[in-house]
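Technical annex B. To support the medicinal chemistry partners, we prepared a structural model of the target in complex with magnesium ion, based solely on the information shown next.
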Amino acid sequence: MEVIRLEQIEKIYSDNGVPVHALRGIDLRISQGEFTVIAGPSGSGKTTLLNVMGALDTPTEGTVFLENEDISEKSRAEISAFRLEKLGFVFQAFNLIPVLTAMENIEFAMMLLGIEEKHRRDRAREIMSELGIEELAGKRPNEMSGGQQQRVAVARAIVNNPSIILADEPTANLDSDTGANLLDLMEKMNRDHNLTFIFSSHDRQVIDRAHRLIRLTDGRIESDEQVKQ
Amino acid sequence: MLLTIAWRNIWRNRRRSMIVLISVIVGVAAMMFTDGLSVGMIHQMLDNRIGSHTSHIQIHAKGFNDNRVIGKNIEKTRIVEHAIEQTPDIRHWSRRVVTYGLLSSALSSSGGLIIGVEPEREPNITSIRESIVEGEYLSGAPHEVVIGRKLAEKLQVGIGGKVVGMASALSGDVGSDLFRVVGIYETVSSEFDKTHMFTTLDNAQSMLELDDRVLEYAIIVDDINRVEEAAAQLRRNLSADYEVLSYIDLLPLLVAQMEMYDEMMYIVYIIIGLAMIFGIVNTMLMSVFERIREFGVLMAIGMKNAYVFRMVMIEAFILGVIGTAVGLGLGALFILATGSVGIDLSMFAESLTAFGAGAIIYPKLTMTTVVNVVIIIPLTALVGALYPAVKATRLQPVTAIRYV
Ligand SMILES: Nc1ncnc2c1ncn2[C@@H]1O[C@H](COP(=O)(O)OP(=O)(O)OP(=O)(O)O)[C@@H](O)[C@H]1O
Ligand SMILES: [Mg+2]
C-alpha cells in the first residue's frame, strides 16, 4: 500500500530576500513497511523533504498525498490530527518535554489522542518493555544519555501505532554503538509491526542499514535504489 | 497532565517564577492594605461624626434640618418621646436645642452652633464629655458652656473665662446670655471643635425663649446595621409633622466621600492590575520564547493549538492563584497586626484631623476586599497570559524546531 506520494515538489525558501531552492521537482512514492534512508550532503534538502512528507512544511509547488489524500485541502487542525494518529517523529535532538519523565513523555502522546489514564500507563509500560527501556521510566530527559533519550523518543513516536515514522538524523548526536542499538530497535519495529520508517542521514552506519536508499543533491533525487529486502 | 506540566514548568525557572510570584504577592498585599487603610479611615470618620454629634437618628419638626430655623421646633415633646419609647432597638435618646449663634469674648468673636444638651443623658449619645481636655463637662448649673480647643484659642479664653452667646430667639428678638467656660474639649476634627459649643438644654431654652420646646432628638440604636429599620419604625410612629433622619441622611457629604473612596480604590486596583499584567506578559513571553523548540516538537507530534494555549494559560493561572493566596495571607496578617494598634499617621495629621479621621488609623479587613482580590488577581494573571499564549499557538512547527 502506498502511504506517501509526492508529485513535482518544489520548495523555495527566501533567505533574507535571496531565494534558496531547497527541493527541485521531487517525485516520490513510499509504500507501507519500507525502511528508507534519504542520504545526501549537508544542505541537500533532507530535512526539508522530511518536513514536507510529515506535513510540517508546505511545498512551494507540487502536491503531497498522505494515504492518498491531498493534504493541501486539509485544515491545520485536520493535519495536526493526522500527524497525531498516523505519523511519528524523531528529531535529531531535544525530542522530549524536559519536565516530564520518560514514562510521562510517552503517555503525553497518548493523552493528546484522548486515551484514558489507566490505558496509557499500561501501553507505555508495554512499549517500554518492548524497547527494553523500562528502567528509564522515572527519569527526566536531563537524567538520560542522548541514546536513551532517542530511544524514549522512538517509543513516543510509535506508541500511537502510526503507519509512518519520520526520523531526521536520529543518530547524529550518538556514538556509533548507541546509534547501532537505536537502529536495531527501529529495524525490529519495522520487521515486527510492518512500520514504515523514513530516515534522513549522512551517517555511513545508517545508510548501510537502508533497504531503500535515496540520494539527494541540491534538492534533486540523484539516485533511488532498492539495496536490501 | 497539562496541570503537571504547567506546575513543573513553574519550578523549572524558579527565579523567573519567583519574580512573578513576588510581584503578584506585593500587588495583592498592597491592594489589601490600601483598601484596609481607607476602609478603616472611612469607618473612623463615620464613627467620629456619629460619636461627636450626629448620633444614629435625629428627629426634628418637619423641615428643620434644611435651614435650622428655631421656628420649626417640637412643642408636643410627649408625643415624640412616646413614639421613641414605642420603638424597639433604641438604646439611648436625648433632647437638644441646636441653633446658629455667635459667641464673643472680650477680645474676639466666632459664629457656630450653640447646642443645648441634657448633661446627664447626652454623654450616652456623644463623646464630648470624654473629649474634655481641660476643666469639666457641664454640671447642669446655669450659664455653663463647653467649647472646643480651637474656639478657645480663637476667643482667647480659658477655663473660667466669660463669653457672651447670642442667637435669634423664638420671638425674633436677639436672645443672649453670659456664659462661663467650664470645659474645653478636643475631638479629632479641628473643624468641629471650632464650630460647636455646648450648654445645658435649660439654659438654651430660656435664652431662646423656647420654654419646654425641643429642636432635636438624638437617638442611638443597639445595632448600627439596624438604624434604617428603627428610623422606618419611628416614621410610622410619628405623623408627617416630624422628620426622622438617619446618619446617612444627615451626612450626605461623608456618604458621597465614601462612594468616592470606593471609586478611588477601583482606580488603585486598575493601576496595580495593569502593573501586574505587564509583569506577567513579560515573563510568560520569555517563558514561551525559551521553549520555542519544545512547543515546535509538541506541535509536530500533533498537539493541537487549543492545548498549547491552555498550557500557557494554566501556568499563569497557577502563578496567579499562588500569589493571591500568599498575598492575601500576608495582607490579612498585616491588617490584623496593625488593626488593633493602629498606624500613626501623625506626619499627615494636619490634613487628617481636618478630614475628621484622627491621626491613628486602624486598618480594617472587609469581605468585599477579599472577594475583590480573589476574583480580580487570578483573572488578571489570565489576561496577562493571553498574548503570550496566542503567540505560542502562532508558532510554526518547522521554524520552531529549527530554532535553537
Ligand atoms: N527556513 C529556511 N530559510 C531559508 N533557507 C532555508 C530554511 N530552511 C532550509 N533552508 C535552506 O534550504 C537548503 C536545504 O536545507 P535542509 O535543512 O533541508 O538541508 P539538510 O540536507 O537537512 O542539511 P543538514 O544535513 O545540514 O541537516 C539549505 O540550503 C538551507 O540553507
Ligand atoms: Mg537537516
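Notes passed to the chemistry partners:
Chain B has two domains: 2-49+254-401, 63-239.
The first strand of chain B starts at residue 57 and ends at 61.
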